[in-house]
């Protein structure tokens, strides 16, 4: 009997197999600051991610602080007195537009509209796509098939013509562009979230949660969503870049707010104001380069976050 006494000790609460509930509870109770600190330390080691985050911080600060050093008179076509389409000088480092406004101030102010529309459209895109993917992956059956058929239909449609059509139907303005980008961009997020939801649903702790009496909504929102959140975070970081490009395209085509200032609107104004024929390169390059740099910043940051949150890459390190 003494030979079998140690086996009784394996039933003690300290043993890992004593109770199926503690492992899941322990994972859920892991302190957030420790995980966040480890994430930050790992992120800092990725130079491209740090460079991308630095770009985003600079443009974000410029957009937030723009009203502190740019007044309404600097952007009012009636009150400005600069030369029309003048090349860069000491007073105008990036030249002027056809109305005599400083291109540098227009680029800085345009960051407010372009970034805000990109972020708002991304939030709507991620919320809509994540909801569809979670419901389709969790419930399955005819509900999942119907949602995925709808998702495939949106994937098959060309996004840009659909966004142009929606913006034209809804009307010009920031809200119409935001809605159009979200409606035409959620399908890829839905497929990613559904695939990850199916993978999480097959894990043992989901079966244990259901055996302990957890209902469908509780399992989906408390257990599945928490494990899918890293993928959603990566998807949202990369989606902002495409949303900014879509915003610039739609405003360049004249579907944005006609009184607003954004990088796409500046390109549209440069084209209609004769900057191309006049050879005013200083009017065309700054907004285009600003779009390129911000998109690059979001892409580098998103790739770095994806590298850290990808389970395969974490396993191999």
| Cα-based radius of gyration, to the nearest Å | 26 Å
For the largest beta-sheet, the strand count, sense and barrel status come to: none
Q: Beta fraction of the residues? A: under 5%
State mean pLDDT (0 to 100 scale): 81
Number of helices: 15
Number of strand segments: 0
Note the run of SSEs as H and E. HHHHHHHHHHHHHHH
Report how far apart the termini are: 46 Å
Residue runs with pLDDT of under 50 for 5 or more positions: 1-34, 313-317
How much helix is in the residues? over 70%
Structure class:
mainly alpha
Topology record:
Elements: H1 5-9, H2 21-28, H3 32-44, H4 47-69, H5 72-75, H6 103-139, H7 141-156, H8 159-170, H9 174-201, H10 204-211, H11 216-252, H12 263-272, H13 275-278, H14 281-309, H15 311-316
Describe the structure using short key phrases.
mainly alpha, 0% strand
Please explain how this structure is put together.
With about 325 residues, the protein is mainly alpha-helical. The protein contains 15 helices and no strands. It has helices at about 5-10, 20-30, 30-45, 45-70, 70-75, 105-140, 140-155, 160-170, 175-200, 205-210, 215-250, 265-270, 275-280, 280-310, 310-315. Helix 6 runs parallel beside helix 9. The longest helix has about 35 residues, at about 105-140. The protein is elongated, with a radius of gyration of 26 Å. The model is unreliable at about 1-35 and about 315 (pLDDT under 50).
């Amino acid at each position: 009997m003494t030979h079998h006494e140690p086996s009784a000790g394996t039933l003690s609460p300290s043993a890992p197999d004593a109770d199926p509930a503690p492992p899941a509870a322990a994972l859920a109770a892991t302190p957030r600051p420790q995980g966040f600190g480890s994430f930050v330390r790992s992120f800092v080691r990725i130079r491209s991610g740090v460079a991308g985050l630095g770009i985003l911080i600079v443009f974000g600060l410029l957009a937030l602080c723009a009203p502190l050093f740019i007044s309404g008179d600097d952007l009012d076509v009636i009150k400005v007195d600069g030369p029309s389409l003048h090349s860069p000088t000491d007073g105008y480092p990036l030249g002027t537009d056809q109305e005599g406004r400083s291109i540098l101030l227009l680029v800085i102010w345009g960051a407010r509209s372009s970034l805000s529309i990109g972020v708002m459209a991304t939030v709507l895109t991620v919320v809509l796509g994540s909801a569809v993917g979670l419901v389709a992956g969790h419930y399955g059956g005819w509900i999942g098939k119907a949602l995925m058929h709808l998702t495939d239909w949106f994937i098959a449609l060309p996004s840009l013509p659909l966004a142009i059509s929606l913006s034209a139907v809804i009307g010009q303005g920031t809200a119409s562009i935001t809605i159009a980008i979200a409606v035409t961009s959620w399908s890829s997020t839905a497929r990613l979230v559904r695939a990850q939801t199916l993978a999480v649903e097959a894990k043992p702790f989901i079966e244990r949660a259901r055996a302990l009496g957890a209902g469908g909504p509780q399992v989906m929102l408390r257990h599945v969503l928490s494990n899918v959140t890293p993928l959603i975070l990566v998807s949202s970081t990369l989606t902002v870049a495409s949303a900014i490009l879509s915003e610039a395209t739609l405003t360049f085509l004249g579907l944005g707010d006609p009184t607003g200032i954004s990088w796409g609107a500046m390109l549209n104004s440069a084209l209609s104001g004769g900057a191309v024929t006049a050879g005013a390169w200083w009017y065309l390059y700054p907004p285009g380069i600003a779009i390129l740099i911000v998109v690059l910043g979001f892409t580098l940051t998103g790739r770095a976050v994806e590298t850290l949150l990808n389970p395969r890459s974490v396993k191999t390190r």
